[in-house]
Design brief:
Order of helices and strands: EEEHEHEEHEEHEEEHEHEEE
Structural class: alpha/beta
Distance between the termini: 40 Å
Largest sheet: 11 strands, mixed
Helix content: 10-25%
Strand order of the largest sheet: 2-1-14-15-13-3-12-4-6-8-9
CATH topology: Dihydrofolate Reductase, subunit A
Number of helices: 6
CATH superfamily: Dihydrofolate Reductase, subunit A
CATH architecture: 3-Layer(aba) Sandwich
Radius of gyration: 18 Å
Mean pLDDT: 87
Length: about 260
């Protein structure tokens, strides 16, 4: 890990410790209002120079140790961390924080269940004291409730299309019933596309790793899977540089729900 990181923007440029990257996460009031009907939502992704976000379906190994520290900084500042089932099926992963002196409160781990297997028992590494919630369309909620009894709660909502849960309703429930004010989304591409297409994403954190991975078209997964209704203009918030790795933070100017 490099001794220092360089904050390039906002000015003035300054050196900081890598452990301080993304420590300034704040809920930005929208239209002068602090209260919203859904959580404030940010996404975090690491990609190679040529745009790949996974190798053999797995994101692990693309980012450096500094990227993992920056990810932990984001997790420590939100109430919940969310992924889609495709991301969970690809590899074993944690959606929480490693044990620290004083015991940081664990964010709620949320899985958005689409079609196919929901391998919570097999692939989710839950931390002590961490609650797990699976968001499911009504058609499969009962079966999931039975299957995941004792390890996860299931939130049943109507389906939007193709048995994909209605995220607008799910997010409203997360805000009202689970007290989720800040939500971090860590993929995958379908979940990102749904949030962006519905105008639900507030900020985008993107780490560019200094790697070229190549691959055939069927191997290349990018941040968004499929098309979105219209191009999105982003507002650059900050840039950090550490060991050739670039950490970008953007704000999306979108209407609240």
């Amino acid at each position: 890990m490099p001794e220092k990181a360089l904050r390039l923007y906002p000015l003035p440029t300054t050196e900081i410790y890598p452990t301080d990257i993304h420590t300034d996460l704040q809920i930005i009031p929208h239209n002068g209002e602090d209260l919203r009907t859904r959580p404030y939502i940010v996404s975090n992704t690491v990609a190679s120079i040529d745009g790949r976000i996974s190798v053999e379906g797995k994101a692990g190994g693309i980012g450096s140790a500094v990227d993992r520290v920056a990810m932990r900084n984001l997790r420590a500042r939100v109430d919940a961390v969310m992924v889609g089932t495709g991301t969970l099926r690809a590899e074993k992963l944690s959606l929480g924080l490693e044990a620290t002196p004083g015991g940081s409160q664990q964010p709620l781990a949320i899985i958005v269940a689409a079609s196919g297997e929901v391998p919570v028992r097999k692939n989710l590494i839950a931390h002590e004291g961490q609650e797990v919630l699976v968001i499911s369309a009504e058609a499969k909620a009962e079966a999931l409730t039975e299957e995941l009894s004792g390890i996860a709660s299931v939130l049943s909502v109507p389906s939007e299309r193709d048995d994909y849960p209605d995220l607008v309703l799910a997010l409203q429930t997360l805000k009202q019933e689970y007290r989720v004010e800040r939500l971090l989304v860590e993929g995958g591409p379908r979940l990102n596309r749904t949030l962006i297409s519905r105008g639900l994403l507030d900020e985008l954190f993107l780490t560019i790793a200094p790697k070229l991975l190549g691959g055939t078209p069927d191997q290349i997964r990018t941040i968004i899977e499929g098309s979105i209704p219209a191009p999105k203009d982003l507002s650059l918030t900050s840039i950090h540089l550490a060991g050739g790795e670039i950490f970008l933070r953007y704000y999306l100017s979108i209407p609240s729900v």
